[in-house]
Amino acid sequence: MSTIGRDPIGFELFKNTLFSIADEMALTIYRTAYSGVLKDGMDYSTAFCDGEGRTVAQGLTMPGHLGSFPDALGATLKRFGDRMKPGDIYCLNDPFEGGMHLPDVFILKPIFYRNERIAFAGTVCHQTDMGGRVAGSNASDSTETYQEGLRIPPVKMYDAGEPNETLFRLIEKNVRVPVRVFGDMRAQLSACHVAEMAFLRLVDTRGLDTVKAYMQELIAYTERMTRASLKQLPDGEWSFEDWIDDDGIDYGKPIRLFVTLRKSGDTLVADWTGSSPQVKGAINNTLSYTKAATYTGIKSVLPPEIPNNDGFHRAVQVIAPPGTIANCVLPAATAARGLTGFRMVDCIFGALALMLPERVFAASDGGNTGISIGGYYADRKPFIYVDFICSAWGGRPWADGLDGNASMFANLSSHPAEVIETEHPLEILGMEFVADSGGAGMFRGGMGFRRDYRFVEEEAVLQVRSDRRAFRPFGLYGGKPGRPSVNIINPHTEHRVVPAKITMTIRQGDVYRHELPGGGGWGDPLQREPARVLRDVRNELVSVEAARRDYGVVIDPQHWKIDETATASLRAELRARRAGATLPVVDRSGANGD
Q1: Nearest of 335, 222, 244, 344 to residue 292 by alpha carbon
Q2: The pTM is what?
C-alpha cells in the first residue's frame, strides 16, 4: 500500500479504469437486451467485485440496486465457496437467499488469473417474466412467495464453461416469454464477459499484486471519503414517519414506515425499528432493498464523487428487524416490493430534512408505478408488457421539483410510445402533465403525468402497483402536498375509478388511464415569485384558479398579465387569515383523501 500512497496518479487512473469497466458492462446490456424493461426502461445494474465478493465499483444505472451485490455474492460464496473454478457462472433470484424479488435475476461470474479467483463480474436485470400466477411476475396481490414464480437459489448456470441444461430447461418451461428472457440473460452474460476481458488486460498491464492492492485501496479510499463527509454533518438523532396507503389485500389499512437516523462523528445508523410487521400483499422488502433505499437517500446529501462500493457500506449501518416490511421472512411475497423501497427513500428524506433543512427536497411522486399487461394473441402466442413509470421530484430548497423525471431511486427511462405500440397490442392515446398536480410552494413540486393505454387484443390481465392516493406526497417547510394518484378505466365513457393496486381482466377497446402523483412543495407558496406562477399558468402546469387559491396571484388570462394590485391585496388577506399560525415542517394535509 505504501507504493500506492506514493503514486496518486496511478491510483486515479486505476480507479477510473475500474469504474469504466462497470459502466461498459451497463452499456453492453443496454445495447444487446431484448426487452423494453432493459433497453428502454434500463431496470438493471452492473458491478465489479473483488475475489471475496466485496463491491469495488458499480455501474451508473439503478440506485435501487445499491448494496444488492454483496448479499447475492455472499449467498453464492456460502454455497459454493472454494469449489468455484474457471468457466463457472452462477445465477439466482431467491429473495430469501441473496436476491430481492423474483424478476431481478443476478448473473455472477468469478474471474480467475492463473487459477486464482481474483474478482467477480456481476449483473442484475429485471426479467420480463419469471412465471407465477400473473404475467410479469410482479403482482401486488400475491400473498406468499410461492405464488410469484420460479425461485432460483444460487446455482451454477455454467460449469467450467458448459451450460447447465437442467437449469435452462426449467427456466424455459416456467416463463411465458423464454425467447425474451434468454435474450436478456445473454446480454447479462455478455456484460460479464466484457468485464472479464477488460480486467484481465488490466492485470496483464499492471501486475496482479498491484491490481489487488489497488482494489482494496479503492474500498478504503471510499470509506475515508464517506467518514470525512459524515463528520461534516451535525450529530444527533432524527426520526420520521410516513405511511403506505395499504398492501392491496387489506384495503384501507395503512402501513407504517418509520426510520431513525443516529449520527455520531464519522458513522451514521439508519434504524427502521418501528416500521410495520410484514404484510400479506407483495410489497415486503428484503433487507438488501431496504439498504439500497437507505444508501440512496444518504448518498444524496454527501459529495457526489464518493464511489459506490463496500467502503460506503462500512460507514453507514442499516438496522431492520426480521419479520417487518423492511426485512421480511418466509413466506412473504415480495414481487411489488419496489413500491416500499421508493417510499422508504421519501421517508429517509423526511428524516434528513430535519437534519439538513437547506439540502433536502420534499416527497417525490412516491413511485414508480408498476404496470403489466399480459395475455395471448389469437394464435396463443403470449405477450407481456411491463413498464415502470415515474414523474416528479419534490420541490427543492433552491428550485422547483423536476417535471417528468424519474425518481432518484429508479433512474428509469419511460418507454417510447412508438416502441410500445410496435411491440405490444396497445395504443398510447395520450401522455401529458396533469395541471395542478405539483404541491404548491415557494418552490413547487414536480408535475405528475397521465398516460392512456388502449388495449387492442381480445383479452388480457392488467396489473397495477401504485400508491400515494390516501397519503399524498408531503410538502416541507410550508410547502403543500402533491396531488394523489388515480387509476381510471375508460375515462371518456364509464370513467370507472379502480383501486391503486389492482389485478383485473381488460378486453378489446378498453382504455386504462394512470395519473401519477405530483411532488410535494417546499416553502411558503405566498413567497413564490408571481412571475414564476404566471409562467406555470401559461405552460398549463398551474390553472388560473390554482394560481389565485394556492399562491395568491391574480392573473388576467386575456392578456397574460399579473394584476399586481389585486395580487398584493389577496396575499395580504391570505397571510392575515393564518396570522399567528406556524407553518408545519412537514405538511401532510390531504392525507386519507381530505
Answers
A1: 344
A2: 0.94
